[in-house]
Structures are given as structure tokens and as C-alpha cells.
Amino acid sequence: MNKKLAGRWGEAQTAAWLRDRGWEILGANYRTRFGEVDLIASDGKFIAFVEVKLRKSAAFASAAEAVDRRKQARIRTCAELYLSVNDCSLQPRFDVAELYGEGPGTPCTIRYIEDAF
């Protein structure tokens, strides 16, 4: 399967999961010249910058382990840029959504890690 298509599917699954729990999706695939944030969501208390990682299984390593220091720095920079142009009084945080499954048309498991870094 195409990695880009699988990634978009994972982001859509995570967005639906967040909406089911009362979150509002403020943005998806927010791009800057420094990188991209997969989802930006709010629950009224926090604004979460969410990195979505899709894997078939955690046999090799957890999906969250792919969010290394360099990736975290890029996400932080993107978040700073987002907050500089979007008025927001909510507490920012950085979350990671791990999805395990085969992709579109198959069930998946979501492990959501709040305040991951």
C-alpha cells in the first residue's frame, strides 16, 4: 500500500477517535518550511499537536519510538509558528497516536499518548 495513503488513513482514524472523545480538530497536515504537524486538536483545556504513527505491529519497536529528538524539534517549531499566527489561550502539549493495523478497510488499534514529549 502507498505510504502516503496509509498515513492519511491513520490521521483520519485518529481524528475520528479524538472527535468521539469530545475533541475539536483545528487543523490537519499543518505544513511549514520546517516540517509538518499531522493533527492539531483542542479539548477546551489543551491544544494538542498530534504526531500520528501507523505500523503493522509493535514487534520491532513501538510506533512512538519513531518520534526522535529531531522530529520532536520540528514539531515544536511548527507549533510555535502555528501559535504565533493563531490566537490561542489554551495550554499546548505534544501527543503521539500509535496506530497498529494493516491499513484502510481493516480494523486498527489506537494507543494515544498524552504529553508524549
UniProtKB/TrEMBL annotation:
InterPro entries: Restrct_endonuc-II-like, tRNA_endonuc-like_dom_sf, UPF0102_YraN-like. The keyword Transport does not apply. GO terms for molecular function: endonuclease activity; nucleic acid binding. Keywords: Endonuclease, Hydrolase, Nuclease. Belongs to the UPF0102 family. This is UPF0102 protein SAMN02745168_0660. It comes from Papillibacter cinnamivorans DSM 12816. The lineage of its organism: Bacteria, Bacillati, Bacillota, Clostridia, Eubacteriales.
